[in-house]
């Protein structure tokens, strides 16, 4: 996950939720988002996608 851009990481997070992937996988993505301090991009992505 370290090689993913911030944008791709956020997209992956939303897609994992949409596809109802495992909680463990979603939590792993969430931890990386928190580690990068980019939580604000989650809401920004939702706003852009609509």
What's the arrangement of secondary structure elements?
Elements: H1 6-18, H2 23-35, H3 40-49
Helix pairs in contact: 1-2
In short:
It holds the Pfam family Sda. By secondary structure, the protein is mostly helical.
Note down, in words, how this protein is organized:
This protein has one domain: Sporulation inhibitor A (Helix Hairpins), CATH 1.10.287. Helices cover 72% and strands 0% of the residues. α1 packs antiparallel against α2. The N and C termini lie far apart (25 Å). The mean pLDDT is 90.
- Please identify, by name, the CATH architecture: Orthogonal Bundle
**End-to-end separation:** 25 Å
pLDDT < 50 runs, ≥5 residues: none
User: According to CATH, what is the class?
Assistant: Mainly Alpha
Proportion of residues in β-strands: under 5%
Query: Shape, please?
Result: globular
The whole-angstrom Rg is: 10 Å
Can you write the helix and strand succession as a string?
Answer: HHH
Query: What is the percent of helical residues?
Result: over 70%
Biggest beta-sheet profile: none
Output mean pLDDT.
90
CATH superfamily: Sporulation inhibitor A
CATH names the topology as: Helix Hairpins
Q: Provide the number of structural domains.
A: 1
Contiguous helical run count: 3
Judged by helices, strands and strand pairing, the structural class is: mainly alpha
Number of strands: 0
